Amino acid sequence: AQSVTQLDSQVPVFEEAPVELRCNYSSSVSVYLFWYVQYPNQGLQLLLKYLSGSTLVKGINGFEAEFNKSQTSFHLRKPSVHISDTAEYFCAVSTRGSARQLTFGSGTQLTVLP
Amino acid sequence: DSGVTQTPKHLITATGQRVTLRCSPRSGDLSVYWYQQSLDQGLQFLIQYYNGEERAKGNILERFSAQQFPDLHSELNLSSLELGDSALYFCASSVGLQETQYFGPGTRLLVL
Questions:
Q1: Cα separation of B54 and B58, whole Å?
Q2: Mean pLDDT of B93-106
Q3: B2 and A43 in contact by Cβ < 8 A?
């Protein structure tokens, strides 16, 4: 079975500052990795995904993440955040199998301060 | 807008009752997944259907059941509801078994 740990439950940051949201995973088999964002009272929107290939993945809204197999991490970064980035961010993994259900971390609430 | 629709958006009911949540996947998607988001358990996978057949089960209670119909829409049935079933229930869909999942807006269930 796989698991996901999001190390920070809340991350406050000032507008235009850089941010990193940390995600570590555990799995005995190869995984696919995802970051989803949930704005207040909305569903989950896919930010980016790592399936294979380049370990640096670029997503929507200026976010990027780097897959580090040796550290079993998939941290999310943005060089300059905006007020509109305030949301909850979820890291998720799925295993390479026939039924690819997602295992989610507990989420990180990013609050961008003016 | 992901293209996945869920109805109703909100549902308030009493303990012991039964409700049905509906999900329409994106056009062309054959896989439907159900997830539950609660404050104490976080986001948890419940069940997956692919082209009408159950493919995977997660932490789904025996009081809960689901099905996927020939037109590919899916329903999640929750019975003998308890206070602890209050949560946000998400449906997601993907083209096949290996692709990215796209989530609907969710159904917020409140059991009183």
A1: 11
A2: 85
A3: yes
| Preceding amide of B8 cis, omega within 30 | yes
Taking an 8 Å cut-off on Cβ atoms, the answer to whether B45 and A90 are in contact is no
- Amino acid B49 reads Y
For residue A10, the tally of other CB atoms under 10 A from its CB is 10
Spatial contact of B107 and B11, defined as CB atoms under 8 Å apart = yes
Task: Please choose, from the candidates B100, B96, B97, B88, the residue with its C-alpha nearest in 3D space to the C-alpha of residue B34.
Answer: B88
Give me the sign of the Cα torsion angle A109, A20, A47, A79: positive
Which residue among B58, B98, B102 places its CB closest to the CB of A101? B58
Q: What is the token pair recorded at B12?
A: 């308030």
Q: Contact, A50 vs B104, CB < 8 A?
A: no
So what's the pLDDT on residue B69?
97
Structure confidence by residue, pLDDT tens digits, A56-112: 999 999 999 999 999 999 999 999 999 999 999 999 998 776 557 889 999 999 999
CA distance B74 to B21: 8
Contact A85, A78 (CB under 8 A): yes
Angle at B36 between CA A60 and CA A100, to 5 degrees: 60
Q: How many C-beta atoms surround the C-beta of residue A28 within 10 A?
A: 8
